[in-house]
Amino acid sequence: MKRLVLPLLLTVVFALPAYAQMMDMPMEPGGGYGPRMGMGRIGVDMMGMCLANADKIGLTDEQIKKIKPIHREMEKKRAQFQADLKIAEIDMKEIMDVKDFDMEKASGQVKKISDLRTAHQMEMLKGMKEVRSILTEDQFRKMQKLMREKMGEKKPGKKRMMKKQ
């Protein structure tokens, strides 16, 4: 029994400071830590790029009229998600502020944060699917190409690595 308790205790002791530090890290606009982009960011960016490059991908006025309200709605949902997530993270910090914090409360808060992220990602996927159904196959391919180019610009180190190989 002692062999089981000691490793478990050490795991908790070493994991908590890392989690606490992670909670202080700035969030990306779409959710997620560090350089990766969250689903919300990708979805809203894709629609923004569609609208900004409407002439390049050949969008009709009718398509633009359909995409604009979807884009605005997704921007609102992303802003609401960011606010809700920030509040949930502050609540998590409050729970963990005491030395002997309530594990049940912490677990519930982790689940709440996870549920917020899942619900947001599902909303973004629905919006992306709706916009993609408005695009023709050719427009979708052009949009994919633009997105790949945009992602490539943000990761210059990746291009350099590929050239060296």
Describe what this molecule looks like in 3D:
The structure is a single chain. Helix content is 82%, strand content 0%. It has 165 residues and is mainly alpha-helical. The chain has a domain at 37-148. The protein is elongated.
Describe the protein's topology.
Elements: H1 2-23, H2 39-52, H3 54-57, H4 61-96, H5 103-134, H6 137-154, H7 156-164
Helix pairs in contact: 2-4, 2-5, 4-5
Rg, Å, rounded: 21 Å
Overall pLDDT: 78
List low-pLDDT spans: 19-37, 158-165
Number of helices: 7
The helix-and-strand class reads: mainly alpha
Report how far apart the termini are: 52 Å
Strand content: under 5%
The number of E-state strands comes to 0
What can be said about the biggest beta sheet? none
Outline: elongated
> Helices and strands, in N-to-C order?
HHHHHHH
How helix-rich are the residues, as a percent range?
A: over 70%
